[in-house]
Amino acid sequence: MSSRQPAQQIDQQQLVHLSRVLTRHHVLRAREWDHRSPLLQGRMRLHELQPGLFLRLADVRDLYDLTSESELNPGLKIAVLLRGRAEVAFGHRRLQLHGGGSPSAVMVALDRAAPFRRWGHRCGYERSLTMTLSPSWLQDRLGLARASQALHNRHLDRAFWQPSPFILSALEQLFDGLEAQPTPAWRLQLEGLALALLGEALASIGSPLASRHLAPVTRPSRLQRLWQLVASGEVDALTQRQLAERLGMSVSQLQRRFHDEVGESLGSYLRRRRLESARHALMHEGISVEEAAARAGYTSAANFATAFKRAFGMTPSHCAKQRGGSARPGHSE
């Protein structure tokens, strides 16, 4: 969050209020939370730009290990994570979105109400935009009887893409003025940007709604396909060589292009991502240190413990004990 903006506190009532038109049966759970203290710090806004077209802007930091559960209303969802990390599930389909060098975006089709879950982590940060298109808006504006007709005619269909630099720059500028009182001109700009984002998304994912005149400006690049693998979670099960083969590149080409775009080596990025996954599992799933090491790609628990402490400033066992008990007995570092 920008240091220029005052830090606001968002409590349970405010959080549920901001979600009321998009979700039902909202349940919030957080360890050590007294049900009165604020849950988030930052800024969150919800705008209905047209009847049935909603845009939610969030620039927040979690104050607890917060799990949010609700039931999403039917419609088409578009989520863009500009900074930080988000871990969510639509129905039974779990996914992670990452911001930073190449922010990821996803479109999800809900033909009927579906469970939704978000896992927040204490001190975790998220700057995101979520667009919701209601069934009535989809019918009136796009002639769709079901949200899934925008994808492949299946409930909970999803598609990933990488937004263009133009869209990303415009979205970042939105957050710069998030504190100001919305003016009619600002709302018109926001509406135009929302529609541009929708058009780009439909073209980039190859939606049936995209005519030949709305084809993607450029064919998805190999690095764009890499970020699709990252967003879907498939990258966690692949070596760099397997990744390169999937993308039709040599390992050295992939490493060079990744570093040029992101400013971090591919190996470092993958190690950090897998360590974060292992840390989450230790804190929330109660797995052993050896299991966490395997999840992070380490065959040696000792080497894993060394890398873990270097990354997070604590040992894996201390992490597990600090966040809800201890690692399963009988396992050491």
TrEMBL record:
PROSITE patterns assigned: HTH_ARAC_FAMILY_1 (PS00041), HTH_ARAC_FAMILY_2 (PS01124)
PANTHER family documented for this protein: REGULATORY PROTEIN PCHR
GO MF term (any one): DNA-binding transcription factor activity
Species name: Marinobacter lutaoensis
Span of domain HTH araC/xylS-type: 224-322
Protein known as: HTH araC/xylS-type domain-containing protein
One GO BP: positive regulation of metabolic process
Keywords in alphabetical order: DNA-binding, Transcription, Transcription regulation
InterPro entries: Homeodomain-like_sf, HTH_AraC, HTH_AraC-typ_CS, PchR_regulatory_protein, Tscrpt_reg_AraC-type_HTH
Organism superkingdom: Bacteria
